[in-house]
Amino acid sequence: MAYLRWRRFIELASLDRPRVGEFFMRHRDKPIVPAPVEKWDREYREGVYDRLARSDQRHHHRLLAAMIADRWPQPRVLEIGAGEGVLFEALRAHAPARYVGVDFSAPAVDKGLARLTAEREAGVVDLRLGDGRDFRTDETFDVVVFSECIEHLGEVEDLVAHYAPNLRPDGAVGLTMWLALKPLRLWHRLKTLGQVVDEAVVNTPWGGGWLVAVVRPLRAAATKAMLLVATLACVAPTDAFAAPSLDLPLSIDLARAAIDACAAKGLPASASVVDDTGNPLVVLRAPASPKPPIAAPRKAATAVKFDAPGSEMEPREKADPDFAARIAAEPDRLNPHGGSLPLHIDGKLVGGLAVADVSHEAADACARAALARFSDRVK
User: Fold this and answer.
1) Would residue 213 count as lying in a domain?
2) 331 closest CA partner among 371, 352, 356, 301
3) What mean pLDDT do residues 266-280 have?
4) How far apart are CA 149 and CA 370, in angstroms?
């Protein structure tokens, strides 16, 4: 019992502290090997997984269903790794408009089809045989759920990209994951791909534990902007007394809002957000933008270095030889042209935002429009 409590403590500690998990992880270099489909088929036929329909095995399903329904009333859900479609029993209370479950075990799918005959005939439910790594459908959904299977489906970045066309503009990825150190590596990677909408851990009296989460992948509906760089140096424990700083979700939102503001004017642009040292956190480029996204990070870094907007620095470069010399000394890092803004939280400089590859006047307007959308959080 003491060992189980210690293990759970380590698992919980590693949720936001990857280094803790890596330190205590055994066989960290040994890959997770999925069981062959023949084993799943045999165990479904033998009724091994009938227990998954019990109430004490479905806490995580009920929590995830509530998370989804809270944001998407009468949701449309695609579940990968659905088994017999047990998640639908938790969704049922929330009147889903559509549920499609996918599993690579034929006996599991057959059992689910037999149990959910009425819902299938009503057009609400469909269970399909398929491989979650490459399953395709023309339908779109509010949430694509990966049920205790994401660690068996390859690179998480490729997986999210594969199902992105099936997500509605405000769609998200849902996740249930057995709480263990090695699978949590994928959770840390998934978090960097977008905004965590909900996250919780379910512990059961019999010792089981699940991570349950909803993540909205980075996307800009108006322009379908492509994510080029989104890096987070490390995940550290939260310190209530730490100095204010930009977090990755806000940085993504700012860059995306700037791209969207330009798109509304018919201008494909690039945008960047940097931290208080001038290092890029996010770089976005609209697909039709005419240039590689080089200027935006440099403009944002310049706004940080001089704590001034580009609209002020551009004329200063022409009128102030000393200032011009400082810019010329770092041509690969600094660009004082219009379209950049320093960012402040509680009066402290925390980073910079810049728009590029459109006229300097348009870039400045798009950057200011983006900042205005989040003026309650950053100035």
Assistant:
1) yes
2) 301
3) 92
4) 38
